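Reopening closed ticket. The problem is back. First fold of the pair:
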Amino acid sequence: MSARHSVTPIDVTEVDRYDHETDVLIVGYGCAGACAALEAGETGSEVILLEQQSGGGSSALSGGEMYLGGGTPVQQACGFTDSAEDMEKFLLAALGPDADEEKVGLYSRDSLAHYQWLVGHGVPFKHSLWDSPTWVPPTDDGLMWMGENAYPFNEIARPAPRGHRVAAEGFGGKVLMARLSEAVENKPIAIHRDTQALRLIVDGKRVVGVQARHFNDTVSYYARRGVIITTGGFADNSEMIAQHAPQLVGLGINSDGGDDGRGIVMAQAVGAAVKHMSAGQIGISAVPGMMVRGMAVNNLGQRFINEDVYPGLIGQAALFKHNLQVWVILDEQAYEEVPVDERWGVRPHFVAETLAELEREIGMPDGALQTTVGEYNRHAERGEDPYFHKAARWLRPMRSPFAAIDVRRGMVAPSEGGTENGGGAAVFTIGGLHTTVDGNVVDLDGNTITGLFAAGRATSGLHSWGYISGTSLGDGTYFGRRAGAAAASSSVHHPREAGAA
């Protein structure tokens, strides 16, 4: 970062005057910021929200899935029994090694109450199930599987679908943010748009405010109780990606363009610790409905995962273990079984009557696909998959003609045109600031930094090196609420006389 964009904190004695004072100052107006504002406002605290764009952030562009469970009305209406214990077991297994046990446990136990809180603030969920693998259903169904019924997770916890999708035509993130924004704007919460946070203001070891830019003006904010950072991840900051998550370099980015990591480095500049900065969600450029009916193989023609698992986990395996040199192999019946509106415009790149021909066309070793498909078919005849344990529902022998789809050629959601875009995956970061369950930012000594809180993708939330759809919006809304409540209950710190030593 250049000098004019320095994140070095400003000592309170260097501030000539404060343009605004408030109890709680929230930086970032996505789902985490909105929920933090609502919860802080409920206490009677004065709240100001800063937003560098118009509001909504990456939350508004998301599919709208929220990972919720424990027996929600949507689950019950669709005939599923669920418990917080099973939800917790699944998340700890699916979110990677060193997933935050305290956060996952609390989130799971409070999930049903959090669902009710969201509904109480106008967030709609339809009581119906979408029952096959997909990134985003082409319907407004309100519940979907996120791999809970796939191996090995179906042996770790009792399966139940927990992907709660905000009711919408197409992507539901815009509806989620519209409802949360309506709730915020019906409260006495000040929203300062077109305002970019630059650096934190400190009084000794306590964070007491933010210096920001509003168009060409530098503006100073004083926060009597706390500053909450909800600025998102750092997928749009190529320098930070190269530094922390080099395997994501050069891939497509799933964001609103504003995930620049500034909130993270502002906090680091006052001593904040970070966690899991190399972790990312990998939205592989493959249609789940095609993969599950066929197979995903590496460039040696070998399967490497069960294709009915959550597709983001397939993406992580494809990138981190196979550098995205991955193909989807299927036959004509498998392709035709995928409804047109679920194909996302993806067509086979190679078609051949025999596997030997297909191997030659895509440059695989002679016999590679023949061996893999032969073994697959031999067991599929009996509805079995001893290699990766794909569910019997999706197993049948593949027959000529065969097709191959090159994942690296990319694809684009129908809402964005539905054509190839190259790159093989769209990614975002899931590592960030180390926080407590109440959103307190932790320093390198393991102590909380007084006056500083964070939530959402600016933090290392529930995850480590795993991801399940809905755990960003779920994590952001729930821990945003907790951060808002914690900041509002912090002790009041009155500003010194401006410029006084």
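Second fold of the pair, where the issue appears:
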Amino acid sequence: MNTFKQFQVNNEPTFHTSIVDKEFPELTNNEVWVKIAYSDVNYKDALACSEHGQVIRHYPMTPGIDFSGVVMKSLDKRFQPGDQVLATGYGLGVSQPGGYSDYQKVSGDWLVPLPETMSLRQAMVLGTAGLTAALCVNALLTQGMKAEDKVIVTGASGGVGSVAIAMLHKMGFQQITAFSRKEEAKTWLQKLGATQVVHPEAFLPEKNKPLDKQQVDYVIDTVGGEQLTRLLPLIAYDGAAALCGNAGGIKLTTTVLPFILRNIQLIGIDSVNVPHEKRLNIWQQLADLSVTDHLVVNEITLDQLEETTKKILDGTHQGRTLVTVGETI
């Protein structure tokens, strides 16, 4: 076999997607060939598959910021053929071909050995969404978040939000408010662990004040923009918000008052360039918590990617989408 299948976006002669045949390039330095079993679809992947997403650095490109699979060939002493691995973030699907491919060549520095108690499928049910959710939860735990505290999770029906709710529930949190505009998501979010599911506009005050009634201790915010602006004045003294998304916009209009009068913290969360040792610890934490059985998971193949990414950008997608790339391993 000299070629393999790869999903690709291109902007010549006009923007389009296609599944193409690619030849195997040679490995250099500490690179590794991985036979991909699964990838997933994140908001960033949806942007990468759209003409005006402003994610792809150069074309043609194979999106897919995550993948899991089996090492086929390695020039990195840390990995041997047959090893099960996963990769998320770094330049995958943005500046280097990503997970929407039967095989992928990647630096060994970007690979994480699959935890013993996690399957390749479970790894991609979580993917970057799971990594990000764990980073948010851990950041707030470091700030002092306790199981009895009131926690709001925004964008709850999305990947990061749903994983965060499942994690908090497994950790014993009893006051989890899920923000969701989708009435059809209410039942499954409650099953996931949300104490209550509310439309953001039913919770947030009509008029945004510099400081308002303290209604929540901690926030995991996947949305950003105006919604976070309106949430900050509601956070209680010594509380914090972990911010990991910008689906609601990149602008934040606020005052210094919540920070200097209530001592709240706004913590930025990046999942792309997380140090390797930290990744290892978080993936083991996710394996130990074992939350994948409770998540809403859609399964697709490469030829269904375009339809799925449009749903994500339209705001009609729920839960996690698993992409079955190669043979199930």
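Update: turned out to be a display glitch only; the data is intact. The CA atoms of residues 237 and 260 lie 10 Å apart. The radius of gyration is 20 Å. Please close again.
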